[in-house]
Amino acid sequence: MEELPGIVITGASGRMGQMLIKTVLESDKARLVGAVEREGHDWIGQDVGVAMGGAAVGVSVTDKPLEAFVKAHAVIDFTAPAATIAFSKLAAQARAVHVIGTTGMTDEEIAQLEPASHHAVIVRAGNMSLGVNLLTQLTKKVAAALDEDFDIEIIESHHHHKVDAPSGTALMLGEAAAEGRGVALNDVRDSGRDGITGARKKGDIGFTAIRGGDIVGEHDVLFAAAGERIILRHMATDRAIFARGALKAALWGQDKMPGQYDMLDVLGL
């Protein structure tokens, strides 16, 4: 029987890291072969199952990512931009699929992933859920169908621990809306309003970020014109949907040529 694809999880101790580990351990299509944390972390050297408060699973947490990556078929990475860029180089050396769910990356940081994509598969998305990727496609189609008499506002809500705004998903939706209208998001983006801002500029795509409590993730795309509004909405109630999507991406990438892909490719959308 052929061995199941081996998966390494970076940022093992984080909320998403632990959810990803749990998802891989419960899967009958993949196996956990590595868990990575930063140097000096309390989990280093511990069995990751024990560190998470459960039974041993036979995988120790390490601060040596390349040693873990060379044993893997895929790396799933929901960490921080600088770490993700470093991991991309190591995953490329190991020829492992690199699934990136890290948000808050600038265009310059995203561009730094390009060299690694010549040697390995990179699947990067602001959101790994099926529902959000369908919402992205709907947003593009609605934006293309409506003219600039409809203002576009993207309203996103997340837990109070989230450090970046707008969310990666919100920006993904903004890109879809801009593409639908045939414009560049950087030319029409309007976010961080405060004080006397003046009237809204026609054609702008606005962003509003809400942070509070334990909200997993909610995104509304509002199309507002005189006398009517259209609202497209996605609500996530369990971050396991992102972990399942990330694992799906890791498995999908196994037989693909090196390059950069997104969840629309994974889902055939």
From TrEMBL:
PROSITE patterns recorded: DAPB
Protein's pathway: Amino-acid biosynthesis; L-lysine biosynthesis via DAP pathway; (S)-tetrahydrodipicolinate from L-aspartate: step 4/4
Annotated residues for binding of NAD(+): G11, A12, S13, G14, R15, M16, E37, G101, T102, T103, A125, G126, N127, M128
Domain Dihydrodipicolinate reductase N-terminal: 7-128
Pfam families in alphabetical order: DapB_C, DapB_N
Active site: H158, K162
EC number: 1.17.1.8
Single GO MF descriptor: 4-hydroxy-tetrahydrodipicolinate reductase
Catalysed transformations (reactions): (S)-2,3,4,5-tetrahydrodipicolinate + NAD(+) + H2O = (2S,4S)-4-hydroxy-2,3,4,5-tetrahydrodipicolinate + NADH + H(+); (S)-2,3,4,5-tetrahydrodipicolinate + NADP(+) + H2O = (2S,4S)-4-hydroxy-2,3,4,5-tetrahydrodipicolinate + NADPH + H(+)
Gene3D superfamilies listed in its UniProt record: Dihydrodipicolinate Reductase, domain 2, NAD(P)-binding Rossmann-like Domain
Annotated (S)-2,3,4,5-tetrahydrodipicolinate binding sites: H159, G168, T169
Binding site for NADP(+): R38
Positions of the Dihydrodipicolinate reductase C-terminal domain: 131-267
InterPro entries: DapB_C (IPR022663), DapB_N (IPR000846), DapB_N_CS (IPR022664), DHDPR_bac (IPR023940), NAD(P)-bd_dom_sf (IPR036291)
Uppermost EC category: oxidoreductase
Keywords carried by this UniProt record: Amino-acid biosynthesis, Cytoplasm, Diaminopimelate biosynthesis, Lysine biosynthesis, NAD, NADP, Oxidoreductase
Cell compartments where the protein resides: Cytoplasm
Function: Catalyzes the conversion of 4-hydroxy-tetrahydrodipicolinate (HTPA) to tetrahydrodipicolinate.
Quaternary context: Homotetramer.
Family, per entry: Belongs to the DapB family.
Protein name in UniProt: 4-hydroxy-tetrahydrodipicolinate reductase
Naturally occurring in which organism (per UniProt): Cognatishimia coralii
